[in-house]
What does this fold into?
Amino acid sequence: MITARLDAVRPGATICPSDVARALSSDWRPLMADVRRVAADMATVRATQKGCDVDPITARGPIRLGRA
It folds into this structure.
């Protein structure tokens, strides 16, 4: 699902993990940790916060997901 969402945006753009969670369920908030965990395991996905690379599992606050 993360890859599909990234495919839907222009090259170089990022998405919010909540975009993925919202696509999976109307009760999306409980899914946020799972989305971050899956993103951390994907070699083709990069997580950033304020433009700096972060670990999506340990980062606190909003992050963005993009292509690595």
